[in-house]
Specification:
The protein has 14 helices and 17 strands. It has 435 residues and is of the alpha/beta class. The chain has 2 domains: 337 residues, Alkaline Phosphatase, subunit A; 87 residues, Arylsulfatase, C-terminal domain, CATH 3.30.1120. The strands form 4 sheets. The protein has an 8-stranded mixed β-sheet with strand order 5-4-6-1-7-11-2-12, sandwiched between helices. The two termini are 40 Å apart. The structure holds zinc ion (ZN).
Length: 435
């Protein structure tokens, strides 16, 4: 059995990577790897931020199937994650990352023999803490960032170190998931990586201050438009830094375990005010959805795939490549059998659903509708929904139908899942009474 190494980068938008045509050479390692990989030019996340996307891709479940989870509930109870499926198939499983949204506290350690989120009760404490304590923690965080260069997330070097350390005592086959936060704000790349992409250096204190401004929701909105380029410079430096981290981990694991499939992707992208905001809020434009995706390893084709695919296909594709036939729990199909369009979703007081194919993007949000012709308007600026063109109208009614069908299917699955959970509850009760 082949090993699987899943490398996901938080907030990495594809169009800021040189292998996706970016003007700066931000990803020299991935560029080279992409040429030897099954490389997806049009890959999309199914949601615009961690809470929507990660539970979705780990369990091949559309983000809006479980609304309470999006709003801070436990990880998809009643569905299986890739770690559980692989563990059942004889895999040693491990995950290393430092994103609180996908921590052990929320049940993301399910199926992993080893799960290191570096948080050790921190999420519980922060949920309970008083306002005063919160302010104190923010001050300490700021001081640590300035004096000790300590970021709110673990450095990718540490992620690599812990991943490699776990591998020292493990038998094949294994499944290792490493999730990197180095591209996530605050963007504080070492200056070396800014120099490597031909960007001016920034002092550490300037980087920390810019990080504070973008991290803080109130300060974020006051960032001036002319400052955005500085943020993009730092973001690109972070991308180059992460490329280097991926180079280290892939080359070390590949050398020792040649029979390994590597997957590189991101949970979502990042917005730089293309549609009015910074960060990754609940919107479904391409800066947030278009992400990298490649599969690399022995026996995997080196091909460029144009067809649009989404991360709902990630687990089905892993299982397909491993020859594991366990698709009961999955909503997606593998990339070779998936549809020629993708669906993405977000919850912002109400559901937002997007259809995307190679030419069109159609977004439904309550009574609002948006239609963009991606080939002519890649920036998604000109809403064609009110167009009088008969062909456009035909497209709209087709996309609307596809989205409606998708929503109906989700409703059905949601009901089935609730029934399943109710039955489980009764079964547990009966077992308890008998014992
Ligand atoms: Zn994320």
């Amino acid at each position: 059995m082949k090993n699987v190494v899943l490398l996901t980068v938080d907030c990495l938008r594809a169009d800021h990577m040189s292998c996706y045509g970016y003007k700066r050479e931000t990803t020299p390692f991935i560029d080279r790897l992409a040429k030897k990989s099954l490389f997806f030019k049009n890959a999309f996340s199914n949601g615009p931020n961690t809470r929507h996307s990660v539970p979705s891709f780990l369990s091949s479940t559309y983000p809006l199937l479980f609304l309470q989870e999006i709003n801070g509930g436990k990880f998809h109870i009643g569905r299986r994650s890739v770690a559980e499926i692989l563990k059942n198939n004889g895999y040693a499983t491990a995950a290393v990352h430092s994103n609180p949204y996908i921590s052990k506290f929320y049940g993301y350690d399910r199926g992993f023999d080893y799960f290191n989120d570096f948080l050790l009760g921190q999420v519980e404490d922060e949920i309970k803490e008083s306002r005063l304590k919160k302010i104190f923690r923010e001050v300490v965080k700021g001081l640590k960032a300035i004096t000790l260069h300590k970021l709110p997330h673990e450095d990718g070097k540490r992620i690599n170190y812990e991943g490699l350390r776990w591998l020292e005592n493990v038998d094949e086959p294994f499944f290792l998931w490493l999730h990197y936060m180095d591209v996530h704000m605050p963007y504080v790349p070492p200056n070396q990586f800014l120099e490597e992409i031909g960007v001016k250096k920034y002092s550490h204190i300037k980087k920390v201050w810019m990080g504070k401004k973008i991290d803080d929701i109130k300060m974020r909105d006051k960032i001036k438009d002319e400052e955005i380029m500085d943020y993009i410079n730092l973001y690109d430096g972070c991308v180059r830094y992460t490329d280097n981290l991926l180079k280290e981990i892939v080359s070390k694991i590949e050398k020792r375990y040649p029979d390994t499939i590597f997957i590189i992707t991101a949970d979502h992208g990042e917005e730089f005010r293309e549609h009015g905001d910074l960060s990754h809020l609940e919107k479904l434009y391409d800066e947030l959805l278009h992400i990298p995706l490649l599969f690399y390893g022995k026996g995997i084709d080196d091909r460029i795939i144009e067809k649009p695919v989404s991360l709902i296909s990630l687990v089905p594709t892993i299982l397909h490549l491993l020859g594991i036939n366990d698709n009961r729990w999955l909503q997606g199909k593998n990339v070779f059998e998936s549809e020629e369009f993708i669906i993405a979703e977000a919850w912002r007081e109400k559901p937002i659903t997007a259809y995307r194919d190679l030419e069109w993007k159609f977004i439904i949000s309550g009574s609002e509708r948006e239609l963009y012709n991606i080939t002519e308007d890649g920036q998604e600026k000109f809403n064609l929904y009110d167009s009088k063109d008969g062909k456009v109208k035909e497209k709209i009614s087709l996309f609307e139908k596809i989205i409606r069908r998708h929503i109906t299917n989700l409703d059905k699955e949601r009901n089935a899942r609730n029934t399943y959970l109710q039955k489980e509850k009764v079964r547990r009760f009966v077992r308890k009474m008998r014992s």
